[in-house]
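Sorry to interrupt, but I need a hand with the structure work. Leave the record below and I will have a look:
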Amino acid sequence: MTTFEITVAVFSSVWQLVCSVLYVLFVVHLFVHEVRTAVRLKRKYVREFWSYVNMGIVACTLGIVMVCVWRYGESQRIGDVFRDTHGYAFVDVHMAVYVNDVYMYLVASCAFLGTLKLVRVCRFNRRILLFVDTVRRA
């Protein structure tokens, strides 16, 4: 299977591929920045809440990439079984469902941490600050 065929099989559009590559590049930049900050701050780095959020985003993204590869392998396995038996054999999809659930949990965790980071970045905007204050009181 060529690289183009794998790319077409994993991503449904070129825009999705471009966004995924940009996101991974952003996370690599974030990881390098966090390592430099950890070296500079030493023990103070561990005491900051936002360092855990940033490293959580990096860890979730690394997990997402690994689970995407695992999910692609599972889909290939299921396709091979289906193709070899011409659709007449029982195809066990429990592992594929499990892999997809793990993927969704990682994406949800990354989205939650990204939302926390976005609220922190936008805290200087009055309207966002009003939203944050409302959530804090709720």
